[in-house]
Design brief:
The chain is of the alpha+beta class. It has three helices and six strands; from the N terminus they run ααββαββββ.
């Protein structure tokens, strides 16, 4: 198994970037299109646990205004072979300054790359929990 094959890594990074753009513009169709349309898909959010694609899609439709604006601070993507990847994003909420984390498990399906599992959370301590720049990997 090849870890971080450059071509596969570039594909998934582009998908993570497109997901972020869709999130910030509340493009519900694109967000739904990024997720695996399966009852096995899971999204654990800041204030919601969503089990199955139908619950995830209903949540997006019911969320007025979409996701709060945020600034990505760090993105790490690791691919395993040609069909599996994980993406982790650290972000700062623009309205509160709180630091958040997002993780996604991407799998290549017959319909292309899809998120099969996602997690979003905010750190309890707020913005003071982020490492100093000299402590960060990059």
């Amino acid at each position: 198994m090849i870890v971080n094959d450059p071509a596969v890594l570039a594909e998934v990074i582009a998908l993570v970037d497109a997901y972020e753009a869709a999130l910030m513009t509340n493009d519900v169709a694109a967000l739904d299109g990024a997720f695996w349309a399966s009852p096995h898909t899971v999204r654990l959010g800041v204030a919601e646990n969503l089990w199955g694609f139908d619950e995830i899609a209903a949540f997006r439709l019911g969320r007025a205004g979409g996701s709060p604006p945020r600034t990505r601070l760090r993105t790490e993507v690791t691919t395993f072979g040609a069909d599996f990847a994980i993406a982790n994003v650290e972000f700062r909420r623009d309205d509160t300054g709180k630091i958040g984390r997002q993780s996604q498990t991407w799998v290549r399906t017959a319909d292309g790359w899809k998120v099969a599992c996602a997690h979003v959370s905010l750190m309890q301590g707020g913005s003071d929990q982020r490492l100093a720049p000299e402590q960060e990997k990059r």
